[in-house]
Write a structure and sequence with these properties.
Layout: H1 6-10, H2 18-32, H3 41-57, H4 60-68, H5 93-104, H6 112-115, H7 117-123, E1 131-137, H8 139-144, E2 146-157, E3 173-174, E4 183-184, E5 195-196, E6 205-206, E7 219-230, E8 239-242, E9 258-264, E10 271-273, E11 276-284, H9 285-290, E12 292-297, E13 303-308, E14 317-320, E15 337-344, H10 351-364, H11 370-379
Parallel strand pairs: 1-9, 11-15
Antiparallel strand pairs: 2-7, 3-6, 4-5, 8-9, 10-11, 12-13, 14-15
The structure holds zinc ion (ZN) (2 copies).
Length: 381
């Protein structure tokens, strides 16, 4: 076969963008697909040329190389038969295959045994599913960190049939309906109606006697116990990845990952805010007025002493450095504890307490709202 101009094969200009090339390819691939032209033996040849041209021109590196000088790109010619396209052009067939199924999306299957896509697809390994589970943690365990076990459901290859779906002692055999290609024409001459073989579901093989353990699916759902290390200072809603502990892959593909999402029990006193804890601390108005030393609980137990200045106001915040949650990103470091002062007013007074307070009121003879009125007056309408 002659050396062809790949741009002419796709019917695009030399300056065509990748999008133009992709569009042209898509159109021609549909037009010349062998399933769409069962009466025309040339269609298959054209189809292969189009595929090969696309393989080179859609790859910027190969395209540059091609642009540099003419080369014999269709060396294999018509004699290639069922060989993979690209085999004669430097053997980089794989890229075009994945592109092909990308392009055709749901129609990827139509390229049955003819182009080799089906074979590619069937032998491709796949990564196992990622699995997400939730773990409930007590405040203390989240604070200190804990190694715990979670139940992780995951799809695994069936051990009894080694994933084939065939009863032990038997093996899957080539599908008689599609001859192993996984594809079938439902309506001659109309390629859009060609699709996955319904008998084998596109696998190309059928199981005569299904494996009892997995009902022929080749996969079983198992719940495994997986050990997870929860870091000290874990927050509610944290996602911990345990690599490789999700569903197992197929045909040697890697296992998926397990994600453990934490649910941390809410603490009645310490509310999490970033790496800090916030706690509201009641203080009597006498303590606040006179000033005093008060004890405040620490999240991990024990107390911390705080010095209240005389005249401390309600809502005042005080920071206790290093008494917050352990920082996940900096080992050994902790956030702070934010103490919010809440003034407590006695609900009941004894007769003597009442007299003392009345005496105090006489003594102070103050108008605490004087400023309020003054400001309202000055700024008012
Ligand atoms: Zn099985
Ligand atoms: Zn079949």
């Amino acid at each position: 076969m002659d050396t062809k101009d790949l741009y002419k094969v796709l019917g695009v200009e030399k300056s065509a963008s990748q999008d133009d090339i992709r569009r042209a390819y898509r159109k021609l691939a549909r037009k010349y697909h062998p399933d769409a032209n069962p009466e025309d033996p040339d269609a298959e040849t054209r189809f292969k040329e189009v595929q090969q041209a696309y393989e080179i021109l859609s790859n910027p590196e190969k395209r540059r190389e091609y642009d540099r000088g003419p080369r014999e790109y269709f060396g294999g010619g018509a004699g290639q038969g069922g060989r993979q396209p690209g085999g004669g052009a430097g053997g980089a067939g794989e890229a075009s295959f994945s592109d092909l199924s990308d392009l055709f999306g749901g129609f990827g299957d139509i390229f049955g045994g003819r182009s080799g896509t089906q074979q590619q697809r069937r032998s491709a390994s796949t990564k196992g599913d990622d699995v997400t589970v939730t773990v409930n943690l007590r405040f203390k365990d989240a604070f200190q960190g804990i190694t715990t076990r979670v139940n992780a459901p995951a799809e695994e290859s069936c051990g009894d049939c080694r994933g084939t779906g065939a009863a032990p002692g038997t093996a899957p055999r080539t599908c008689p309906d599609c001859g192993g290609s996984g594809m079938k024409n439902r309506d001659q001459g109309f390629f859009a109606l060609s699709g996955t073989c319904s008998r084998c579901g596109g696998k190309g093989t059928v199981v005569e006697k299904p494996c009892p353990a997995c009902s022929g699916r080749g996969r079983v759902r198992r719940v495994r116990q997986v050990t997870v290390k929860i870091p000290a200072g874990a927050r509610d809603g944290m996602k911990i990845r345990v690599p490789g502990r999700g569903g197992s892959g197929t045909r040697g593909g890697p296992a998926g990952d397990l994600y453990v999402v934490t649910r941390v029990e809410e603490h009645p006193v310490f509310k999490r805010q970033g790496d800090d804890f916030v706690a509201e601390v009641p203080v009597s108005f006498v303590e606040a007025a006179l000033g005093s030393e008060i004890a405040v609980p620490r999240p991990e137990g024990g107390t911390v002493k705080l010095r209240l200045a005389a005249g401390t106001q309600d809502g005042k915040q005080m920071r206790v450095r290093g008494a917050g949650a352990p920082r996940a990103k900096a080992r050994g470091e902790r956030g702070d504890l934010m103490v919010k002062i809440r003034l407590v007013v006695p609900e009941k007074l004894t007769k003597r307490e009442k007299e003392i307070l009345e005496a105090l009121a006489d003594e102070r003879d103050e108008d605490v709202r004087e400023r309020l009125f003054r400001e309202a007056r000055e700024a008012g309408a």
